[in-house]
User: Fold DUF418 domain-containing protein from Pendulispora brunnea.
Amino acid sequence: MTTTPVDENWTMESSPARGTRATPVTKASRIEDMDIIRGMALFGVLTMNLAMAFRVPFMGNPWEMPKELLERTVFRLELIVLAGRAMTLFSILFGIGLAIFLERASARGPGAMWLLARRLLFLTAFGLVHVFLIWNGDILTSYSLAGLIALLFIRQPTWVVLLAAGGFFLWHVIGHFWPWALAVTDHNVPGHYEESLRVYGTSGYWDIVRFRAPEFLRMEMPGFLFLLPDELTKMLLGVAIWRSGILRLEVREKYRKTLRWTAVLGIVYGIAYPMYRWVHFEIYHSPRVPPGTWQKLLLNWHAMNIACALGYGAALLLLLRHTTWRRRLGIFAPLGRMAFTNYLTQSIVFTTLFYGYGFGLLGKFGLAFTALIGIAFYIFQGIVSAVWLRHFRFGPFEWVWRSLTYGQLQPLRRAAVEV
Assistant:
């Protein structure tokens, strides 16, 4: 499923008549590296959402291994390379955005925490509309609620932030060993998958809305709350990463060795074991699960997601040190700048494609063909985002969110302000 990240770019300006007020930053102040990484992560989010939540019902998906070799290969590659990794990277970027927003707001005077809380509350409203009226694979609500909890730690010293991140991680990992954890995260309710396939694939819009609301409250909400510590871990890591200065290009050189080791160890740890299980399955046709508690802790899926996401991010930061790679990867920046709009647009377009009130194609496409659809649509969104940002400062949903945050309409057209 996905995230939309907070847009961290803003500044303040003073007016003798109105005093000091919050306004967005100019283009020159944007952190392009974050836009590029966010835009690339958006592809992973879209791919996994298409594989597991748009083309088949999100709740009750049996996750059966496909029988065809091509389908099975696509399934495994998506799980190993993208599943959980892209969303984790988005959550870390969200935490970085919170830290940047608060740091720059605080430098201009009081009220920064309230402005950030207001921003998150409006994101909660977006999320609730999204989950009940558009698609139940929403991550906006979990991001906003986890972000509000993260505000309790965001002004603490970095060691406290890291300690809290570690505590939330242990809370989440150990929680999986509690008997009730399986009950709140197991979506394989007998008969529900078949019923949801029928309703989402053949019913009208309001019938789907009526079906989805109790489904979310009864089946998804407990798991949603269970996963909050995991989201908090990633967001607080993002806060600590921003404070380290490692994202600032002018000081990145001294972190080269750290970034290299993070990239190598993170990606190897995150991918090696899932790759081993894939090969083992193809040879012996049965999964091999670590038998002991320590093995389960060491090879915890959430730990591998975090390590792999950090590895991806470190590798990209290393590449972005070079002008050639920055120019090549810069095509992803518009997608990242409009990630909120692109995320919501994906929900609208693909629910229309797969649900009964649209084209009714739910459950009728394989993984390989669906992946091709995702690639094509991602390229389309990249083109639209680049063209849009030539004329406008923000994506349409970013503009609405920013205007609500600052309590006044923000200038949208590029000609309206110097950017």
Observations:
- The chain has 18 helices and two strands.
- The mean pLDDT is 84.
- Residues 11-246+331-416 form one domain.
- The chain has one domain: 11-246+331-416.
